[in-house]
Amino acid sequence: MAYTVHQAKTHFSRLLKEAEAGQEVVVMRGKEPVAKLVAIDEKAADAPEKNFRLIGAYRGKISWDEDAFDPMTDRELTESGFGYMLDAPLVPRPDK
Prior knowledge:
Elements: E1 2-4, H1 5-10, H2 12-20, E2 25-29, E3 32-37, H3 42-46, H4 74-79
Parallel strand pairs: 1-2
Antiparallel strand pairs: 2-3
């Protein structure tokens, strides 16, 4: 069934019942259809979203060495391509 916006606002509860019963409910603005009410499939409502991420899913699967977050030595910096950082000051000097 097709309803105007005014009819949809006035009889919204009835339109929801029609959608739940499997009928197609279309809301029209003038002669132009702008929305369709459809019932939510129970299986789809219970399914997780596509971008669902389970917290803790990788617990116990990722490991690192104890020294992974220790500062790098000068040699390690140079080998990693960060040798330019050896001569750079840690804090920029203020302009005088």
